[in-house]
Write a structure and sequence with these properties.
- By secondary structure, the protein is an alpha/beta fold.
- It is built from 9 helices and 8 strands.
- The strands form 2 sheets. A 4-stranded mixed beta sheet has the order 1-2-4-3. A 4-stranded mixed beta sheet has the order 5-6-7-8, covered by helices on one side.
- A hairpin with a 2-residue loop joins β3 and β4.
- The two termini are about 35 Å apart.
Length: about 280
């Protein structure tokens, strides 16, 4: 088979795989478990299509139409991952307000998060404190009232500049670990959505923003809790196989739990009397 035909065949196979990956993102892993795994390949498939488009462009071949059409169909996946704003601040209206969402990873409080690649805890806390957003949604929030470094509630609320709600998963005396919403605007009402058999959860705040009320959800869906070291550490094939089987089971459990959690959140959102803003760490595509 000539090289040109092999490339056409390869592009055709990748296109079918890409379309299947697009379709997988619309399916519930609870009913189609394979879809949860296949949907993870979307970024790789998009990158491969870009490479094929570049190849056919350099070859000045009309086969460029195939990856370009596939990329056009995949535009929603691009848009859901990377957004570009071409509006300048001067075009913003009086009703504009800013929202900040960040998984702060307990501000690197634990020793195992203080590795050479981690952001220094003080720097990370300062980044959140200095951010001027009107509303801040923080996942894996941590506060220790007696600590000079980790007394994060007092530092972020800036002497009453921000109102706040805390939804702790674990609370020991004056220590908090969980979720937090900070707002410069009044919080009229708040509530929580607990997920069964999980430390992950969601909460919401009804916030009076100027002349309107909006409901802001802060969500942390089920974590997979993968240990990166175990993915590559293994003295022999059997040990590596055991590690990867464990990873597969964790991912499978995560897909199924997130499906249930998303259903709970969607039911709650449908009952909201106000426009909704959803923030969070969803741990999935």
């Amino acid at each position: 088979m000539a090289k040109g035909r092999k490339r056409i065949l390869a592009n055709s196979v990748v296109t079918l795989a890409t379309l299947l990956a697009y379709y997988a993102t619309t399916l519930s892993p609870q009913k189609h478990l394979w879809a949860g795994f296949w949907a993870l390949s979307v970024p790789l498939m998009l990158l491969t299509q870009i490479l094929f488009a570049a190849h056919w462009f350099l070859q000045k071949s009309w086969w460029i139409v195939l990856p370009l059409c596939t990329l056009v169909l995949g535009y929603p996946h691009f848009k859901s991952s990377i957004n570009f704003s071409f509006k300048s601040p001067k075009n913003h209206t009086e009703n504009t307000f800013s929202v900040f969402s960040y998984n702060v990873k307990v501000f690197n409080a634990y020793n195992h998060l203080q590795g050479k690649d981690s952001i220094n805890a003080k720097r990370l806390i300062q980044q959140v404190v200095e951010d001027s957003s009107d509303i801040k949604c923080l996942q894996e929030f941590f506060c220790e009232d007696s600590s000079k470094v980790f007394n994060t509630i007092n530092r972020i609320k800036q002497e009453g500049k921000y109102k706040y709600i805390i939804s702790p998963n674990l609370k020991k005396r004056h220590n908090y670990f969980g979720m937090a919403i900070f707002s410069k605007y009044p919080i009229l009402k708040s509530g929580e959505i607990k997920f069964k058999k999980s430390y992950n959860r969601a909460h919401f705040a009804d916030i009076k923003v100027k002349n309107k009320t909006v409901r802001v959800y802060n969500i942390h869906l089920q974590s997979i809790s993968l240990d990166e070291d175990k993915m590559t550490n293994g003295n022999n094939y059997e040990e590596l196989k055991k590690n990867y089987n464990n990873i597969f089971r964790r991912m499978q459990r995560g897909f199924l739990k997130r499906t249930q959690q998303v259903d709970l959140v969607i039911q709650h959102i449908k009952k909201s009397p106000y426009p909704v803003i959803v923030c969070g760490d969803f741990n999935d595509t």
